[in-house]
Amino acid sequence: MEADPFDNPTCKTTEDVESFQGEKRKIIQPTSLKDPKLEKLKEALVDWINRTLKPEHIVVQSLEEDLFDGLVLHHLLSSLAGVHLGVDEIALTTSAQIQKLEVILEELNKRLGLQDSSVIKWNVKLIHNKDLLATIHLLVAMVKHFQAELNLPLNVKVEVVVVEVSRSGIKSEVQTEVLTEDSGAGSDSTSEKEDPIEQLLKLEAHKVNTVKKVQQGQQQCRRAEAD
Predict the structure, then answer these.
(1) Second label for 160, Cα 20 to 30 Å away, from 24, 171, 196, 222?
(2) CA-CA distance, 12 to 17, in Å (whole number)?
(3) Reduced to 3 states, what is the DSSP secondary structure of residue 123?
(4) Where is the Calponin-homology (CH) domain (predicted)?
(5) Per residue in 74-130, pLDDT tens?
(6) What does the pLDDT look like over 116-165, one tens digit per residue?
(7) From the CB of residue 161, how many other CB atoms can be counted at a distance below 10 Å?
(8) Can you tell me the distance from the alpha carbon of 114 to that of 132, in angstroms, rounded to the nearest whole number?
(9) Contacts for 108-112 with beta carbons within 8 Å, 24 or more apart?
(10) Residue 104: which residues within 8 A CB-CB, separation 6 or more?
C-alpha cells in the first residue's frame, strides 16, 4: 500500500505538492521527526554552527528557519574555508535570497568535491524551501569535510516518503534515508546489496536450516494451491 504524502505536516496544501510537479521530493515521515536520534543530530548541528560562528555573534536556533536565506551558510563557508564571496550580507527579497544561495552552493559543492549533481542531496530550491532533509544532508557533508574530527550522532536514519507528482497523479513510496552512518561506515548499504546466497552463507548452521524449512514450506503451500 502506498503511503499518503499528505499525512506529513510539512506538506500541508495542494500548492505544496504542485510546486514540485515533475520532480521527486523526499518528505520525512512524522514518526521519524520525533525520533530522539534525529533530535540529537539536529542539536549537534545547531551547536556546531553556533560554536563556529560565535566570533561573528551569529546564533542559530532552528535548522529549518535560520538557514534558508543563505546568511548562515555564507558565514560558515567564510569561516571554515576562508572564502569571501561577492554577495550581499543580507538578502531580503526572495529573488535575492535565491541568487545568493546559487552562488554559495556552487562554491560549497566545489569545496566538497561534488561535481555530479545526481549525487548531491540538496539544491537551491530545497534549501530555500526550508527542507529539513536537504539541510541536514548539506550540514553533515560540511562537518565531514571541514571538521571530520567532530563526533556527530551515529547511525541516524529516517523514513521518508518519496513523492513524484505528474499530470497523471501522485506516486509515493516509503524509503529509509541514512543521515549519518554507524562506526562501520557503509555496512548497512553493503548488506542490502549482497547476493541472498552470500547472506545465507554468513548465517549459523541452524539458522540456514530454518531458512531452508521456511522455503520448503512455501513450496509445499504453492503446490497445494496449484492442486
Answers:
(1) 196
(2) 9
(3) coil
(4) 39-147
(5) 999 999 999 889 888 888 999 999 999 999 999 999 999 998 888 899 999 999 999
(6) 888 899 999 999 999 999 999 999 999 999 999 999 999 999 999 999 88
(7) 22
(8) 20
(9) 108/73, 108/77, 108/138, 108/142, 111/77, 111/81, 111/83, 111/145, 112/141, 112/142, 112/145
(10) 70, 73, 74, 77, 85, 87
Cα 54 to Cα 25, 79, 80, 89, 142: the distances in Å are 34, 11, 13, 17, 17
CATH of 5-184, one of 1.20.1640.10, 3.10.330.20, 2.30.110.10, 1.10.418.10: 1.10.418.10
Burial of 166 per CB tally in 10 Å (0-12, 13-18, 19+): exposed
Burial 196-208, CB ≥16 within 10 A → b, else e: eeeeeeeeeeeee
Q: From CA 165, how far away is CA 179, in angstroms rounded?
A: 25
Which residues does 53 contact at the CB level (< 8 Å), separation at least 6?
59, 60, 72, 75, 76, 79
The span from the CA of 23 to the CA of 162, in Å, is: 10
Provide the grid cell at 120: 548531491
AA identity, residue 36: P
List the chain domain ranges: 5-184, 196-226
- Judge contact between 106 and 100, C-beta under 8 A: no
pTM for the full model?
Answer: 0.72
